[in-house]
Amino acid sequence: MKRDIVYKLIAYSISLFVLVGCSDNATVTQYKTDSTPLKCMRLVVFPPDKLLSQTLNNLYGFQDKCLYELQASRKNGIVCNSNQNADKKALSNFPSGFIRLDIYKKREPIYSYYKDLTCEATQKDIEIAFKQLSEDLLQ
């Protein structure tokens, strides 16, 4: 009888670990709580990425002389060959990419959006990320 309880507890723990560890929510951090929405941003995409640049430019009118800088990046095809992550790769959707949007004012962080992705970052992922940023900081 004790064994059954132990097995159920272990199974429950593993299930909880997988469910919590596989959340697809983005991590959003606001470093400064300004009550005023941002009136402008300039765009920096690094490393250069045509899809990311085009999508963001279609969503917002960036200005080169703005104090607020949106640094955008995405990565696809991340492969981890480390044996230390074997359990995570086997038990969960191990990320193979990410999308990141950071806003800085004079090199000081204001806002950060980061999301791990289990597939290639698409235009829709970029639009979702920018929509969240817009809801949080823009007019």
Describe this structure in words.
The structure is a single chain. With 139 residues, this protein is an alpha+beta fold. The chain has one domain (26-137). Helices cover 37% and strands 25% of the residues. The chain contains four helices and five strands, in the order H-E-E-H-E-H-E-E-H. Strands 1-5-4-3-2 form a five-stranded mixed β-sheet, covered by helices on one side. Strand 4 and strand 5 (108-117) form a beta hairpin. Helix 2 crosses helix 4. The protein is globular, with a radius of gyration of 19 Å. Mean pLDDT is 75; it is low at 15-23.
Layout of SSEs?
Blueprint: H1 2-21, E1 27-30, E2 42-45, H2 50-59, E3 68-75, H3 86-91, E4 97-105, E5 108-117, H4 123-137
Helix pairs in contact: 2-4
Largest beta-sheet details: 5 strands, mixed
Q: What is the string of helix and strand elements? A: HEEHEHEEH
Rg result: 19 Å
What is the number of independent domains? Answer: 1
Tell me the fraction of residues in β-strands, as a range: 25-35%
Q: Please, how many helices?
A: 4
Q: Which consecutive residue ranges, at least 5 long each, have pLDDT under 50? A: 15-23
Indicate the percent of residues in helices: 25-40%
Strand order of the largest sheet: 1-5-4-3-2
Describe the structure in brief:
The chain is built from four helices and five strands.
Quickly list its features:
4 helices; 5 strands; 139 residues; alpha+beta; five-stranded mixed sheet
